[in-house]
């Protein structure tokens, strides 16, 4: 079922209900559930007789070019949403969170000669998969068949002249994209073919923004949650659509106007008469005492995603009482050279989740200090990260390793309150060498879980009140298969 070169012919006057369904949002893992959210601009009697979804993936993979998915035979009212995901994955991640309208069915890749089945949406949909809403299931692809697009996969697939250059700016691996309010598609024609997908009409979390997130209660997810059911199109007035508008509409403005009439009759007037006599001489002196201790503003890099190689020229001090997300997130193999400077929560503010979190694959943090965070450095993403020549001060845990094949070399951890370097089962393949670790309590280095298949822990110096400096929980069950611990000093 390869699209023909005539897929986008000029359209005539289609019924209004043939222009009702749009793609409002997408999310993909592998760390978070794959989700497709659709939105109805007017009443649709049956989704199944109205449209199919096409998932357009890796154009070099003969199956993933097109996966067609038939929608259910259910109505959808104006202003409502239809969410597709994998039931068990969705419910485990969100718990009692958003409503799942439909669990993905096992679906075949519908290319000629292909018999590959996709049992999960997460199997068929990665963060580089484009979506197409295709009219009239069973009809020939083309002839006004396309209603809405997300991503440029179809443009690349249909380009027989070689004049279209694909981009990856719309990719959403371990992240999401959501349509901005009151933006929506127009039926494409040949004249507007290459403008049918506009990235400016979408809000994107950025790829790997949710790397390492394990549930909807994680701080990293709560900082940039997928905005389920918030799309609203003010260009399409509909009495049934307004109840689903975001909470910024009329209901919030109506609530404050009701409060003045709510208080009991005698009390409001008593309060003003008392206030003239209320200001004693102490009132002016109370104001200055509150102002001498303002918290200085955070550095511009605080709570940001670092996506290019960066060398610091000054300390990065953050007010962690305002925001608790990681101070710096490193993505896609970049190097952060702290250049002798410090990344820290300001003294007197709350400790944040982590001073530095490493996402993607192959990121590096080196040559500096981090301080006053719950975890000094967290290893997430696809691993193969490097941390070297970093001093970690006043943390709860110095380093937490949650991805594989990382290198931890020649670092100093001082006075971590509960543990020095902690390695989870996902941290297999870690190499920990020549580090100095001093903890107030807990173990200097701890293999937290069964199932760590490989680790090398050598030439480290550990100071701890515990009798055991390096604790391997897998020794009791013999589930750690290739662990080498040697030539470490324990004081």
Short description:
This protein has 491 residues and is mainly beta. It is 10% helix and 30% strand. The radius of gyration is 28 Å and the shape is elongated.
Overall pLDDT, averaged? Answer: 74
Contiguous helical run count: 7
CA-atom Rg in angstroms: 28 Å
Strand content bin: 25-35%
Point out poorly predicted stretches.
1-17, 59-64, 136-144, 159-165, 186-195, 237-280, 282-292
Q: How many beta strands in the DSSP annotation?
A: 34
Overall geometry: elongated
What is the percent of helical residues? 10-25%
Q: What is the end-to-end distance?
A: 69 Å
Features:
7 helices, 14-stranded parallel β-sheet, single chain, mainly beta, disordered N terminus, 491 residues, elongated, eight-stranded parallel β-sheet
Explain the layout of strands and helices.
Layout: E1 21-28, E2 35-40, E3 51-56, E4 67-70, E5 81-85, H1 87-94, E6 102-103, E7 107-108, E8 117-118, H2 121-124, E9 130-135, E10 146-150, H3 153-158, E11 175-179, E12 202-204, H4 219-223, H5 250-258, H6 266-274, H7 282-290, E13 304-306, E14 310-311, E15 316-318, E16 328-330, E17 335-337, E18 342-345, E19 352-358, E20 364-371, E21 373-379, E22 386-393, E23 397-401, E24 407-409, E25 412-416, E26 419-423, E27 430-433, E28 436-439, E29 445-447, E30 454-458, E31 461-463, E32 470-472, E33 482-486, E34 489-490
């Amino acid at each position: 079922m390869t699209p023909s070169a005539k897929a986008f012919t000029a359209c005539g006057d289609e019924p209004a209900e043939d222009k009702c369904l749009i793609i409002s949002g997408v999310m993909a893992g592998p760390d978070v559930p794959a989700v497709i959210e659709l939105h109805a601009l007017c009443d649709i009697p049956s989704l199944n007789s109205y449209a199919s979804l096409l998932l357009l993936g890796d154009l070099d993979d003969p199956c993933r070019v097109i996966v067609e998915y038939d929608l259910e035979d259910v109505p959808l009212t104006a202003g409502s949403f239809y969410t597709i995901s994998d039931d068990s994955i969705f419910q485990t991640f969100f718990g009692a969170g958003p409503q799942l309208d439909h669990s993905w069915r096992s679906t075949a890749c519908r290319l000629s000669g292909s018999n590959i089945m996709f049992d999960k949406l997460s199997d068929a949909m990665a963060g580089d998969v484009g979506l197409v809403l295709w009219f009239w299931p069973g009809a020939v692809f083309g002839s006004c068949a396309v209603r809405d697009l997300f991503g440029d996969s179809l443009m690349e697939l249909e380009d027989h002249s070689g004049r279209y250059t694909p981009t990856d700016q719309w990719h959403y691996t371990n992240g999401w994209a959501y349509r901005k309010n009151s933006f929506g598609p127009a039926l494409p024609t040949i004249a507007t073919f290459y403008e049918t997908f506009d990235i400016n009409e979408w809000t994107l979390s950025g790829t790997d923004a949710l790397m390492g997130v394990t549930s909807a209660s994680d701080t990293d997810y709560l900082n940039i949650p997928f905005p389920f059911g918030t799309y609203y199109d003010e260009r399409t007035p509909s009495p049934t659509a307004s109840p689903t508008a975001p909470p910024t509409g009329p209901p919030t403005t109506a609530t404050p106007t009701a409060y003045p009439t709510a208080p009991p009759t005698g009390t409001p007037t008593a309060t003003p008469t008392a206030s003239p006599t209320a200001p004693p001489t102490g009132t002016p002196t109370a104001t200055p005492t509150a102002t001498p201790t303002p918290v200085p503003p955070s550095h511009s890099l605080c709570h940001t995603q670092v996506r290019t190689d960066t060398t610091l020229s000054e300390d990065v001090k953050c007010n962690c009482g305002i925001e608790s997300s990681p101070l710096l997130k490193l993505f896609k193999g970049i190097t952060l050279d702290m250049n002798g400077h410090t990344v820290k929560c300001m003294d007197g503010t709350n400790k944040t989740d982590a001073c530095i979190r490493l996402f993607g694959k192959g990121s590096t943090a080196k040559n500096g200090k981090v301080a006053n965070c719950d975890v000094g450095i967290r290893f997430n993403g696809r691993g193969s990260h490097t941390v070297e020549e970093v001093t970690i001060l006043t943390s709860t845990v110095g380093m937490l390793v949650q991805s594989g094949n990382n290198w931890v070399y020649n670092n100093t951890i001082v006075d971590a309150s509960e543990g020095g370097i902690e390695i989870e089962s996902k941290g297999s393949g870690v190499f920990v060498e020549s580090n100095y670790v001093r903890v107030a309590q807990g173990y200097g280095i701890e293999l937290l879980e069964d199932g760590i298949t490989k680790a090398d822990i050598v030439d480290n110096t550990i100071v701890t009140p515990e009798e055991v400096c390096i604790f391997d929980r897998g020794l009791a069950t013999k589930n750690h298969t290739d662990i080498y611990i040697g030539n470490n000093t324990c004081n």
